[in-house]
């Protein structure tokens, strides 16, 4: 979620190379592999040379291959986030000449990795699932990656829940996150383990209500997952790629659900809280737990998330044999695989290429102008992976309908983040330390209250190469709950800013100390870095450092991917289906599909077996 930010102590290093300066014009660099073809591992999966350090490889590419590139492409993609890379990769596979322009030194947007003092940090997403899924019901990211690479390396997460109950610490081995709560407790993922924990810590009534919820919604998952995301496009061709192609499986799903289930399927596009309310679920823990899952998934509580999205997640997390996963070598390895998949089909990525303006001529988007002054022509389309607010800044206001500008400017925003990145000595920590931990300080305040929920990831537990021997790497953050107003107008070099960083990061330090136990010490940290909403705003190019649009299901909908400007499209968390890694991957795929013929689209679906 966060990108590169400056450390809070002068002894640390910048996330970007020392010569990086966001205010100066930097020479664009084409990121490529040396032989023009992606290296393959012996098992047929796409891999990196020296794969244990993907971010280092990308740095090598940009340093050695300062090659000239033609200032035009069929499609120009602004930004190399997950959505932009999925869109560009699929377009390249379709045979389009595609060029991705990335402002920063590494690709990946909020999902990139970076290295400091031998510690390899994830800057954003840490919760992943569905890498191993295949077929119609596969995760959108899995479907996109399967179209570009043969396999992604990942580790399943076998996790340990930790509970705070009446001030006593209880440890239970299940499938889920470690949870630390002032009141009540929190069970894990997976049907059997979840029920055991739920009964022990929340009571029989919670178990009854949870079973009632699953009995009502899991039958709907067949309808929610009947249409593969990769089949969707935003034009009338969707009749062929979706309706005609998958109508039999969809009708079969409705038939299996029966009349009552089919009637319930009409609620898929309504807020999930309506399903919870219709079942008369009143247990405080169940209500809070559902809100937490919704908030972690989409940045809104259950009254703001689509039922289809929640039911899809429930089917993936609460079925026999389910597990969460983590990409080996960090999220940067996932980004590297997407980049190499795109390059395998002829796509290009230009780093340090900051887009200053989308050029509109005769009412159509015809290309972009870089900060360096260079014009890049887009023969077919420009696709922006920037947020809706930041895309708006790139456009000449005189060509935009007032209604379009007004809708963007009045769309509510999620808050921003606080981040804590640590590299520290593992000595003295318990051997069964889990990868993911969540600290909820007070259920009564709500999961969207600021300074109330802290997520912690220690990925070196599963991928030891992310840290030097005997060390761990950690990323903690408040998930889209940090008010931007507290930071607005502050000078990053001022004493006031530094003081506020210390104050607002303390909740994360305390959460880390609780999660890791007495074996952890702040003094044992080799690397300490704090990121703020101003960090997000500066390095992610995000308006107000926001997580994304706070669009409430049932009250409004995420915008589509076309714009009032012909040949200009958008993808990412400001578009349908919304916030989250699977959602943005789907958005990138939808745009790519919409820019090619129905026959090309159908051939791809045939080729990957869906």
3D structure, described in words:
By secondary structure, the chain is α/β, with parallel strands linked by helices. 33% of the residues lie in helices and 19% in strands. The chain contains 17 helices and 20 strands. Strands 1, 2, 3, 11, 12, 13, 14 and 20 form an eight-stranded mixed beta sheet that branches. A six-stranded mixed beta sheet has the order 9-16-17-18-15-19. A two-stranded antiparallel ribbon has the order 4-5. The longest helix has 27 residues, at 238-264. The radius of gyration is 23 Å and the shape is globular.
In short:
By secondary structure, the chain is of the alpha/beta class.
Radius of gyration over alpha carbons? 23 Å
| Helix content class | 25-40%
**What portion of the residues fall into strands of 2 or more residues?**
15-25%
Low-confidence stretches: 1-26, 32-67, 158-190
Shape by Cα distribution: globular
Oligomerization category of the chains in this entry? single chain
Mean pLDDT: 79
Distance between the termini: 31 Å
Largest sheet: 8 strands, mixed
By DSSP, the count of extended strands is 20
Structural class: alpha/beta
What is the overall number of helices? Answer: 17
Topology of this protein?
Layout: E1 29-31, H1 54-64, E2 72-78, H2 82-93, E3 98-101, E4 113-116, E5 119-122, H3 140-148, E6 154-157, E7 159-165, E8 168-174, E9 178-181, H4 191-202, H5 204-217, H6 221-224, H7 238-264, H8 272-278, H9 284-298, H10 307-317, E10 324-327, H11 331-344, E11 348-351, E12 355-361, E13 364-370, E14 375-384, H12 388-393, H13 402-410, E15 416-425, E16 436-440, E17 453-457, E18 471-482, H14 495-516, E19 525-531, H15 533-539, E20 568-570, H16 581-594, H17 598-607
Parallel strand pairs: 2-3, 2-14, 3-11, 9-16, 14-20
Antiparallel strand pairs: 1-11, 4-5, 6-10, 7-8, 12-13, 13-14, 15-18, 15-19, 16-17, 17-18
Helix pairs in contact: 2-3, 2-11, 2-16, 4-5
